[in-house]
């Protein structure tokens, strides 16, 4: 296949506004250089969701490209693993400096390929920087423990790399989610093969070149563009020792099963149906501001978004405040588009079905629009949902809030606990007792009190329960470092013991 059109570098993204800006095609990054697929396959368009037209194309790869990337990683990894951990972390220090210096450029790139408004895209980049900062700290917290367990005998723990590891990331956070995985994996001494979403493959391209500029050796970070074939090849490849995944529950479960059957470590995060408990004593202003931010942020396209509001008792005054605040949001300014026309159709289909089933659409975003040609859904609130309605049961992944009215807190617990997901849950109250009761009862791994998007900040780990997570532990924080490394236990004796025990 010809490589004449492949640039040596993609360089900076030029956009400084929402104006449509095309960019380079997305190709593989293998061994520190851009490559076309080894075998010609499909080429997909990468759409700017705000404008509804292609800003780039992505060249899909397959198992042969995965093999090339994995072998490039395996070739480079042994030398990389011999670097002192502080030297490996220094690459991340330099990456952090570049990300801070180029934060607006990275934010505009995320905004254009994903559709987020600029402030949300910048928040994503800032969270990515925080993840890199945690990686920088690992030399100070990853030191193995040592203990004299018997006279003259010491036991210690060291953290060794696995070798070549891999991850597949979703469309909704094209830069942040890769940085959930990379800092711990790279500082741990591994080589990494990334499969970004084919919808948003551009931000990781810029990240690859920044990592190289920061001093990461060629072959330690590789990108293979593609879809299902690439994911399955990474699950199956004998040299890939661990696999991280973030996406829908259906795919997360399948990937976890396939990777585990191949003998790999696997940690696969799935979908969510997050429940907010609102009780009559909740602060109206705090609740309205926070609930609206939770269900409309990133156009509802995040696994931490509010999805169901459990209205406990008489909270009409609070629901009115939520509705009034959401109604003031301006598409294009306060809320971005969803990523595709198919996503828009799916989201509005849930609203249509709820309306036909007897629910009331108290705020209707189905006819929202901003820039011509984009994929727009405005803030939508459905009141009077029953727990069995699809809008109250399924993950919609859009700016839609389903309100289920319940007479008691116990009934709210029953509904929340019956949902198969377990990602996040929050309560709005001014009562410490109610907050304590909800926090101890909900079936969710990430919980909030008067916080509708209870994302743990570093160093606390990100991860849910039940059908929101397959595998043990969290994907960020200390759990993440332990996932991408393995413990080596060393017992040493350098002198004859003066007493006798079972270790003698």
List its salient traits.
about 500 residues; alpha/beta; Aldehyde Dehydrogenase, Chain A, domain 1; Aldehyde Dehydrogenase, Chain A, domain 2; six-stranded mixed β-sheet; globular
Model description:
The chain is 38% helix and 22% strand. Helix 3 (103-114) packs across helix 4 (118-141), helix 4 runs parallel beside helix 5 (176-187) and helix 5 crosses helix 15. It folds into two domains: 28-270 and 468-488, Aldehyde Dehydrogenase, Chain A, domain 1, CATH 3.40.605.10; 274-449, Aldehyde Dehydrogenase, Chain A, domain 2, CATH 3.40.309.10. It has a seven-stranded mixed β-sheet, sandwiched between helices. It has a six-stranded mixed β-sheet with strand order 9-8-7-10-11-21, with helices on both faces. It has a three-stranded antiparallel β-sheet with strand order 5-6-22. It is globular. The termini are far apart. It contains 15 helices and 22 strands. The protein is of the alpha/beta class and 504 residues long.
Number of strands: 22
For the record, what is the CATH homologous superfamily label of the largest domain? Aldehyde Dehydrogenase, Chain A, domain 1
Hey, roughly how much beta strand do the residues contain? 15-25%
Give the count of helical stretches: 15
What is the spatial order of strands in the main beta sheet?
Answer: 14-15-16-13-12-18-19
Distance between the termini: 65 Å
Basic shape? globular
Domains counted in the coordinates: how many? Answer: 2
CATH topology of the largest domain: Aldehyde Dehydrogenase, Chain A, domain 1
Helix content: 25-40%
Major β-sheet annotation: 7 strands, mixed
